[in-house]
């Protein structure tokens, strides 16, 4: 028989190699967790779930869970917002404490982390969280998520943080997207619960702050598009262009813009900032067209608050010798504030 030493093993002349008891306990715990995940997957065990906060999004989450047969308790500061869910089979809890006590999984969907803290960090509520899973689907910052995870760990609770990348009507559908970060085991153990919330619920990393970081990045893309649309509307109205025509032309142009965004992300990831044979457009081309936009906006008295920010980024890049670089070179000037 061949023996090999593991870290922490002890071997004395004339004795067997005996690993410490912690090695065996860890192995047993790992096997039990694996068997438990497989059992839940195969037999579809339903969990008891509490949804705290039943506004439009919270109600959509609760409805999706009820539709899949999960035992769902709901709580809302204003009780009448939760009452329609009772008709679908939900139990309305009169207090956060009763909702938390009744559930294995507590899903929070309130305004922000301060609101989450206000309802969970009550001494009585905190005392019943041990062994439960907290899933916070509240808007916030990456650091706020990390602090919440640390607080939950101190109370013996597991924690997952999530960013809902959908409007309420997408919840529970195949196209419903939610980004989840934190302990991957907690996500895997409750796969059926997350599948009920949407067909595209993804675990994006162990760092509890990852989901909110991605949320912020994607919101930056969204707001860039929406503020761009506001500028386009202002220009169109000033120049007497019907907005229906603007909409039609945007539909035709959108694939070009999508391609530019995709190329920008790829080139930045690869660090390809110099113009080359694959460059779609250089900074100089964009900056020239940008000057025409500024001239039009000044002539028509259109607010320049947002586009002046674009201008300052262009100018910093040009001052650094990047006039003829690929547009992706601008990414080097946004990492830190000027």
From TrEMBL:
Task: State the UniProt keywords alphabetically.
Answer: Oxidoreductase
The UniProt record lists the 6-phosphogluconate dehydrogenase NADP-binding domain at 48-205
State any single GO MF term. Answer: oxidoreductase activity
**What residues does the NADPH-dependent reductive aminase-like C-terminal domain cover?**
207-334
Q: What is the official name of this protein in its record?
A: NAD(P)-dependent oxidoreductase
């Amino acid at each position: 028989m061949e023996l090999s030493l593991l870290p922490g093993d002890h071997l004395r002349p004339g004795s067997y190699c005996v690993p410490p008891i912690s090695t065996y306990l860890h192995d047993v715990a790992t096997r039990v967790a694996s068997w438990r995940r497989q059992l839940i997957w195969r037999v579809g065990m339903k969990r008891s779930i509490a949804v705290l906060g039943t506004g439009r999004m919270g109600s959509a989450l609760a409805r999706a869970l009820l539709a899949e047969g999960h035992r769902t308790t709901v709580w809302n500061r204003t009780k009448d917002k939760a009452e329609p869910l009772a008709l679908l089979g939900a139990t309305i809890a009169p207090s956060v404490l009763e909702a938390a006590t009744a559930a294995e999984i507590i899903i929070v969907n309130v305004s922000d982390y301060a609101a989450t803290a206000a309802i969970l960090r009550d001494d009585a509520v905190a005392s019943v969280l041990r062994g439960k899973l907290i899933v916070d689907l509240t808007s916030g910052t990456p650091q706020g998520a990390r602090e919440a995870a640390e607080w939950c760990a101190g109370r013996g609770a597991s924690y997952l943080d999530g960013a809902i990348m959908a409007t309420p009507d997408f919840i529970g559908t195949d196209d419903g997207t939610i980004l989840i970060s934190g302990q991957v085991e907690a996500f895997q153990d409750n796969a059926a619960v997350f599948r009920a919330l949407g067909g595209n619920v993804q675990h994006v990393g162990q760092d509890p702050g990852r989901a909110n970081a991605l949320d912020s990045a994607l919101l930056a893309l969204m707001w860039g598009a929406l503020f761009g649309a506001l500028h386009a509307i202002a220009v169109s109205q000033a120049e007497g262009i019907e907005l229906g025509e603007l909409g039609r032309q945007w539909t035709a142009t959108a694939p070009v813009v999508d391609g530019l965004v995709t190329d920008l992300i790829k080139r930045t990831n690869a660090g390809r900032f110099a113009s080359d044979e694959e460059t779609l457009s250089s900074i100089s081309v964009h900056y020239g067209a940008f000057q025409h936009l500024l001239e039009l906006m000044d002539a028509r008295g259109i607010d320049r608050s947002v586009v002046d920010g674009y201008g300052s980024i262009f100018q910093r890049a040009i001052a650094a010798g990047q006039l003829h670089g690929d547009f992706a070179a601008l990414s080097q000037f946004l990492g830190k504030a000027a």
